[in-house]
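INFO batch 0412 | record 1 of 1 | parsing
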Amino acid sequence: MSMKVLVYRKCSTCMKALKWLDEHNISYEERAIKEENPTYEELKEWYSKSGLPLKKFFNTSGMIYKEMGLKDKLKDMSEDEQLKLLATDGMLVKRPLVIGDDFVLTGFKEKEWIEAMHV
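INFO prediction complete | emitting tokens
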């Protein structure tokens, strides 16, 4: 299984998630979400693969999200506009973001990870 994990190394949840993967001997390719932010094409593909609502891809507790007042703005934006916005800054994206062969996970919820990765 080839898995990509997009993380921000200053984020404690991301570090916890990477530690969890290591403890379960799950191999992954790490990518810095801030330096190498997801592109529009990637986000579009991951979103359609995830089956999740697009809101789940936003880092709703992040500073940029709050500064831009996105809580109120998102509902008036099309999915395409939201994806383009997400692609402008990795810090807008919920992390860790995990892309597996047949699943996409946003954030670190151990129960979801266990189910998706069949641990």
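INFO post-check: Residues 52 and 70 are 19 Å apart (CA to CA).
INFO record closed
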